[in-house]
Amino acid sequence: MATSMAKTAFTGNMGALKNVQRVAPARGAVKMEVVAQKKLRVAINGFGRIGRNFLRCWEGRQDSLLDVVCVNDSGGVKQASHLLKYDTTLGKFSADVKAVDEKTLSVNGKNIAVVSSRDPTQLPWKAMNIDLVIEGTGVFIDTPGAGKHIQAGAKKVLITAPAKGSDIPTFVVGVNCDGYKHDYPIVSNASCTTNCLAPFVKVLHEKFGVVKGTMTTTHSYTGDQRLLDASHRDLRRARAAALNIVPTTTGAAKAVALVLPELKGKLNGVALRVPTPNVSIVDLVVQVEKKTFAEEVNNAFREAAAGPMKNVLAVADEPLVSADFKGMDQSTAIDSALTMVMGDDMVKVVAWYDNEWGYSQRVVDLAEITAQRWAA
């Protein structure tokens, strides 16, 4: 079979590193008509990697329709303030962060209440008039679990993980958010890998028609792995995360069908967890209906990056490595030099993503959409 491979080229269309990183105006990925100007009162449940990234992303927004008023963190104010201010991956937070008292955290002079409860039904959401809970624990990801926040008085819940159960709608910014409705009490922002994969799969499917394919994500280790060999329900994740390549499962490829139903049953994949703290890369191989070549595929991505997927999808034309994508606002960055076409119908696409920061930007975006669609 003939093989075509895109030549490395530097383009101004999101190609330069300066354009790949932090390019989103006001950090927002979507522009929509604002239905109501009310600021939603937001609480973050679980102040771990995504919870803290979310707060940093939100703090950097201009004219946000969100007002973060409370954090539920089992470690208390001292832990929350210290880990928000100092971060091994992100560096020191530029905002002024301090513990005001045993129940209050201050970020650039804005006070945020800190509570500590492992039972969502005991959280003060009703008393605090919470509109939206950012569910970041990774635990309460089905209707009974996330619904506990609503029992406690919150009006809506946004899960920062794949949801369990078909009754919770999943949204990926840039892919299917036009279908968001205000009457959804609980929604999922999918996974970081689905947020990387779905936008460029949508482009591929619309331009060339995806028949079937497989995906591998080479993913930085996460808190769900063990630092040293120790018990874990997944025997591979039980092994030392910083010393091994750890093959494991991912539902990201199948989850694409939740936001692109026409691709149901057409994609599958695996994950390789590797000894890096952040930034991951997806390698997708698909058979397509329309005959094509590598540069045509890359041009389709460039058109999307300059148009409907601006600030969600980027194209990197320089020979970069994972560290170069740390802090990238977009959900996905196509590595154009690695795009290949075998024959004329087997397409290989490689895309980078910051699995913490880029994902958290999309959580903020989906929360902003929730505010924009809020009933008057």
UniProtKB/TrEMBL annotation:
PROSITE patterns: GAPDH. The record marks 219 as: Activates thiol group during catalysis. Transmembrane segments: none annotated. CDD domains: GAPDH_I_C, GAPDH_I_N. The keyword Nucleus does not apply. Residues 40-192 form the Glyceraldehyde 3-phosphate dehydrogenase NAD(P) binding domain. Gene3D superfamilies: Dihydrodipicolinate Reductase, domain 2 (3.30.360.10), NAD(P)-binding Rossmann-like Domain (3.40.50.720). SMART domains: Gp_dh_N. Coiled coil: none annotated. It catalyses: D-glyceraldehyde 3-phosphate + phosphate + NADP(+) = (2R)-3-phospho-glyceroyl phosphate + NADPH + H(+). The active site is at residue 192. It comes from the Eukaryota. One of its GO terms (biological process) is glucose metabolic process. NAD(+) binds at residues 49-50, 73, 118, 160, 355. D-glyceraldehyde 3-phosphate binds at residues 191-193, 222, 250-251, 273. It holds the Pfam family Gp_dh_N. Keywords: Disulfide bond, NAD, Nucleotide-binding, Oxidoreductase. InterPro entries: GlycerAld/Erythrose_P_DH, GlycerAld_3-P_DH_AS, GlycerAld_3-P_DH_cat, GlycerAld_3-P_DH_NAD(P)-bd, Glyceraldehyde-3-P_DH_1, NAD(P)-bd_dom_sf. PANTHER family: GLYCERALDEHYDE-3-PHOSPHATE DEHYDROGENASE 2. NCBIfam families: GAPDH-I. Belongs to the glyceraldehyde-3-phosphate dehydrogenase family. This is Glyceraldehyde-3-phosphate dehydrogenase. It comes from Dunaliella salina. The gene is GAPDH.
